Amino acid sequence: EINDMHEQTRARDERLRGDPPAAAHAAATSVVVAVVAGDGNKQLFRELGCGVIVDGGQSMNPSAAQLLEAVETLGRDEVVILPNNGNVILTAEQAAGMSARHIAVIPSSSIPAGLAAMVAFEPERDAVDNARLMEEAIDGIQSAEITYAVRDSEVDGVEVREGQAIGIVDGTLVAAGDAVDEVFGRVLEALAANGAEQLTVLTSLNGSGTTPARLGELAGQVAPDLELHVYEGGQPLYPILVSAE
Questions:
Q1: Cα–Cα distance between 177 and 15 in angstroms, integer?
Q2: Which residues of 169-200 are buried (b: 16+ CB within 10 A; e: fewer)?
Q3: How far apart are CA 190 and CA 97, in angstroms?
Q4: Is 236 within 8 Å of 162 (Cβ atoms)?
Q5: Nearest to 130 by CA among 30, 39, 220, 218
Q6: 3-state SS record for the chain
Q7: Model-level pTM greater than 0.85?
Q8: Burial zone of 106 (CB within 10 Å; 0-12 exposed, 13-18 middle, 19+ buried)
Q9: Please, are residues 33 and 52 in contact by the beta-carbon 8 Å criterion?
Q10: What is the pLDDT of residues 41-81, one digit of tens each?
Q11: Which residues, listed in sequence order, are joined to residue 200 by a DSSP beta bridge?
Q12: N or C: which end of the chain has fewer CB atoms below 10 A?
């Protein structure tokens, strides 16, 4: 299973380095609608063959009507929706229930998880087959995020001050600190302790006080055995989004 995950990550990197697949390929049976925030992230999804991208993010979740509209623009009967946010999964399922088309909703709760699912997408297969492949791809993936605290609080035994960087792994707060890179180091430690071997990191570092090079340096110090793939994502509110395999 670990080897399969390694193959998926390698496949993604090869596909991102190569020519973008033709999303509207004449022979394609099914197409993907993905909810994505950040210009870099949108480009990554397009390069992996996503048919239509709907703007999304923590503060701008699309409605079922918007998702349906995106589905209709594709004019295909076999459609896969990647919500890429826990708050959008139910909306996507509502949209699927309102359409006569065959729509499979993949329960991707983060953009990095959605990317892992996108690598497994095979346009010549139908939506049901793709749902199986894509759900297998995200099964067992750990997700982490670094964002900023909006208020003073104590969460999961960690004291947090408003404005601090906070690191969350699979929904649990694992670190808080004044510097994004410091918190990233703690998140790396937690992921490595959980058995992670490869990380996909989506960054939006403007104003965060750190750089992709610094993140790579930290990974080399904290978890030298981790394989790191860093992309400029451009997502709002989250300087760093991570999926770990």
A1: 36
A2: beeebbbbbeebbbbbbbbbbbbbeeebbbbb
A3: 39
A4: no
A5: 30
A6: CHHHHHHHHHHHHHHHHCCCCCCCCCCCCEEEEEEECCHHHHHHHHHCCCCEEEECCCCCCCCHHHHHHHHHHHCCCEEEEECCCCCCHHHHHHHHHCCCCEEEECCCCCHHHHHHHHHHCCCCCCHHHHHHHHHHHHCCCEEEEEEECCCCEEECCEEECCCCEEEEECCEEEEEECCHHHHHHHHHHHHHHCCCCEEEEEECCCCCCCCHHHHHHHHHHHCCCCEEEEEECCCCCCCEEEEEC
A7: yes
A8: buried
A9: yes
A10: 999 999 999 999 999 865 679 999 999 999 999 889 999 99
A11: 229, 243
A12: N
Instruction: Map tokens 């890429």 to a residue.
Output: 84
Q: At what angle do helices 111-120 and 2-17 cross, to 10 degrees?
A: 90
Instruction: Tokens for 148, please give them.
Output: 């900023």
Residue with tokens 């992921």: 191
Mean pLDDT of the chain: 90
The structure tokens listed for 207 are 């104003």
Structure tokens at 209: 């006080």
